[in-house]
Amino acid sequence: MLIGGTTLTRAGMRSVLAEYEAEIVAAASSIEPLIEQLGVVDVVILLDDQALPLLLQQTNDQPAILLISQELPHPMPQQRAWGVVSTDAYPQEIWASLQALQLGLCVLSPSILAQIHSPPQPEPLDNQLSEREHEVLQLLAEGLTNRQIAQRLIISEHTVKFHVSALLGKLDVSSRTEAIRVGAQRGLIIW
């Protein structure tokens, strides 16, 4: 079963699969007209991710899913065989993926797998803290109270409380002690 894409891309995929004598029982630009037929197919090939959410809601019949995409789907399918093959995959890669899915395996193209092994890195924490927040964290680690920090930095005690609150949020902690521990672990405090 082919779902999504344009008439031309569905025709192209039919042509690719015809080389391997694969049977396409149905094809459409969206999943709605094909929902009744999900129970008679082993694998659904999605030419885009538009139909994925609705397909994942179908709980009675769970054919394997092969998504032709450049990115991992969100959410990823669970409790069924599934795969993501790059849009620039060779016909034999698509055919091998379909065979693996019919055996109950999961399949990922190398370019897709690389997205799992190297997810986007969050901005380093020291770049997220302002210079003043660094100073406040250092003084917290030295054991100073809000009043003492205010006197040392020549700012109001209210401003110190604001900086401490911002620090707790950025460090994702709920206490000054945790902030010091996390700051020390990440090398933000000089001892």
From TrEMBL:
Keyword Transcription: yes
Keywords of the record: DNA-binding, Transcription, Transcription regulation
Xref: PROSITE patterns: HTH_LUXR_1, HTH_LUXR_2
Alphabetized Gene3D superfamilies for the sequence: 3.40.50.2300
Domain of life per record: Bacteria
Limits of the HTH luxR-type domain: 122-187
Xref: InterPro entries: Sig_transdc_resp-reg_C-effctor, Tscrpt_reg_LuxR_C
Keyword Protease: no
Molecular function GO terms recorded: DNA binding
One GO process term, biological-process aspect: regulation of DNA-templated transcription
CDD domains: LuxR_C_like
Cited Pfam families: GerE
Full protein name: Transcriptional regulator, LuxR family
Natural source organism: Herpetosiphon aurantiacus (strain ATCC 23779 / DSM 785 / 114-95)
